[in-house]
Amino acid sequence: MPINIPRDLPAKEILEKERIFIMDDVRAFNQEIRPLNIAILNLMPEKEKTETQLLRLLGNSPLQVHITLLHPATHEAKTTSKNHLEQFYKTFKQIKHQKFDGMIITGAPIEHIPFEDVNYWSELTEIMDWCKTNVTSTMHICWGAQAGLYHHFNIDKRPLDEKCTGVFTHTSLQEPIKLLRGFDDLFFSPHSRNTDVDLNEVKTHPDLTLLSHSEEAGVYLVMSKDEKFIFVTGHPEYDVQTLQDEFMRDKTKGMDAKLPEHYFPNDDPTRAPLKTWRSHANLLFMNWLNYYVYQETPYEWK
């Protein structure tokens, strides 16, 4: 799938080196094709890294995708330049009159804050409500998944005794589910969070379907019964070195950093980790785009 992104977006050069099929907006404009319009509400602090990670996964399918990057207007980013946001990002106010085929709401490292105390919570809930009628399918990731489960289905997050960090084995629970097509019975995905949601609350909720969980990391994949909302509590989009970077960052800050589980060979942080979740991550995003966005969205929104 060619990704249609701004010509000067920093992720473009990285993805081209990886031979990810992308095209800039000038070339895409001259193609007589209706692309999928995907919005990414990027709540992560290092936005440029997250852009690259998500665009890499969205580029693994045979259709053209047009990307709109969003950031909260009610929050001042501290680790992304104002120039980058002004050049490549829009706010909800600027796009709320539009319809989108899909939206991704990312995680954010703010699990310790009650939802209502997050300074952009009111804006985020407005966006999540708007998604019900203006977006064909919405994927929520990590904290974004917890926020969505809380807002839409009243399932609150709960603090963990210690951080859940590492690469964990997950089990596929439901068949036949289109989102799980091609999945192995066991697959891997990274997690990095200090809170989780209760497994029984998800399993017994009448409007939710639990698709996958991990014995160690808990709930992983959840879908609303109407299939409009997908919740991913881990980080399948992470690069191979992301957990390592987080671990070293916390150690440098003098924090009691927990070694990511099942990540470094023989739990030796001096050895390079292996990426064992690449195939699952690509399949997850490809299935979402194909079955829940492309095949469900109208050719012309009315």
User: How would you name the CATH homologous superfamily?
Assistant: Class I glutamine amidotransferase (GATase) domain
Structural class: alpha/beta
> In CATH, what is the class?
Alpha Beta
The biggest beta sheet, please? 12 strands, mixed
Shape: globular
CATH architecture: 3-Layer(aba) Sandwich
Number of domains: 1
Number of strands: 12
> Which percent range describes the beta-strand content?
25-35%
The sequence of SSEs as H and E is EHEHEHEHEHEHEHEEHEEEHH
Topology:
Blueprint: E1 3-5, H1 11-17, E2 22-24, H2 25-29, E3 36-41, H3 47-58, E4 65-70, H4 82-88, E5 89-90, H5 92-95, E6 100-105, H6 121-134, E7 135-141, H7 143-153, E8 158-172, E9 186-196, H8 199-204, E10 208-214, E11 218-224, E12 229-232, H9 242-252, H10 278-294
Parallel strand pairs: 1-2, 1-4, 3-4, 3-6, 4-5, 6-7, 7-12
Antiparallel strand pairs: 8-9, 8-10, 10-11, 11-12
Helix pairs in contact: 1-3
Describe the model.
Helix content is 31%, strand content 25%. With 302 residues, it is of the alpha/beta class. Strands 1, 2, 3, 4, 5, 6, 7, 8, 9, 10, 11 and 12 form a twelve-stranded mixed β-sheet that branches. Strand 3 (36-41), helix 3 (47-58) and strand 4 form a beta-alpha-beta unit.
